[in-house]
Structures are given as C-alpha cells and as structure tokens.
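Researcher: Go.
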Amino acid sequence: MTPLMTTSGGNTPLSPEELADLLPSLATKEELNEWERDNILLAREWATRDRTSPNDMVSDEYLRKLHLKMFDQTWKWAGQYRQIEKNIGIPFHEIREGLAVLFGDVRYWIENGTFSPDEIAVRFHYRLVAIHPFPNGNGRHARLMADVLVMKLGRPAFTWGSTDLIKPGESRARYLDAIRTADNSDIQPLLEFARL
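Model: Structure:
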C-alpha cells in the first residue's frame, strides 16, 4: 500500500493544504484511486449524455463543471483552479488566460476543419495537460474532455492504450513519453497512443 503523500512517475504532488481537503477518510493512494474511479465513472456517464455542443463545451464553465462532477465526492476544491505552483503546468496566475487562448484555438480548429476530429481532441488534451489547471486529476480530466469532444465531433471515444493509466507500468510510461514528445512539437505518438 502506498501512502497518500507519496508521488511517483508523472503524478502531481499535493500540498498538505490540498490533502487536508480530502472529503472521505482514506489512507493510501490505492484507496484514493478506487474512490475517485467511481466518481469519474458517474461524471463520464453525465458527459456522454450531455447535449452541449462541441464549441460550447470548449469553455471555462464546462471545463470546471466536468472536473467538479469527476471529483466532487473526493475533494473540496473540485472544479476550482489551482492556487499554487506545481512541478508541471503554467504559473497559476496565468491559468485563465492560457485556457482562454486554448478555447479560442480549439473553436477555430473545429470551425475551420484545421485538423481531423481526432487531432483536434488530442491537441486539446495535450494543451490542457500542459496548462494543468487543477490541483489534481488533470490527466484524467483532460482525457475525458478529449473523449467527450471527439465523440461530439462524430468519432468514437479514445482508448488511451486500453489500460488504466493511473497505475505505473508500460502503458503509463508510453503515455508520458508521448506527452514529452508532444512537448517537442510532435503530436503523432500521442495521436497513435490515443487510439491503441
């Protein structure tokens, strides 16, 4: 069993203040992951039934609402942007501006067919992860946002390596490698991984 304070490969560490906002009484990362999984499944169900248009889901309101639905049974700060610096992401005081630019870009891509639906959603996912707007859950949130967007654009949800990307292992390492490659302006490995 792994204590909650432990960080590992690609996980964003939580501050003691953020950990104090944990709603259920949990002691290990495994317990936390299990608890969050159930909450995320309910959010996924809501998101796939929701009739928000692709352009309207690419917004501050929808982004925060989905994060809230994913983690409202877990964290008091669910749906709220982070207020401290992390080991990843843009400075916290630039989050709203960074997201506004991203939303504008994605709407432009959709309206002008700049990329295929898969590439629009994967680029959206990548940029969300890079911004890292929330204290925790950014990868899972960005993957669900991409899944919902690509489905609204007429394609099936992504498979993301067809495995649980929370647990350390070969698939998580491959996913993180694809993210790092995208950091160097090559989105292709992440596009391929999304459909594995």
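Model: The chain has a mean pLDDT of 93.
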